[in-house]
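We store chain and fold; thus.
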Amino acid sequence: MRRQDGFSYIGVMVTLVLAAIAMQGAAVMWQQQSQRTNEALLLETGEAYRLAIGRYYESTPQPVKQYPVRLDELIEDKRFPVPKRHLRKLYPDPFDVKQGMTLIIRDGRIVGVHGQSLLAPIRSTGYQESQSGFHGAKHYRAWQFVYEPNTLADLEQAWVNR
């Protein structure tokens, strides 16, 4: 009977090691899926901001087109007798929901947004034409959603066709 002492203990230890390895693999898969979800949300959020900034710019009532000074102007554009809404609400950075998107400012006005995450993107292909600069980006922070004039129709068409 002495020869079998500890056999159950070793069996339990092997089972625990196997369970830990399986849980570690599941955690890695969950983290990667979570990152893919946040990546897709970042693309949607960034495009929503880019389109809203474009609509704001293109609908400027004066002859000289202007970008918004604050993001709130995208929610309620008071330059008209009846305020326009270019965006429903301000969306957070999917990788850091406590923080909004970081603004890209030119001449004191908002021309675009980008996230803050320094994670390396998973997606390497399949970007829209307006996102051609995203290829080879080292981190999500490099994904800049900037509205360039005369591209709004192209952006809206790409958004509808996606």
Observations:
- Residues 83 and 103 are 23 Å apart (CA to CA).
- The two ends are 70 Å apart (CA to CA).
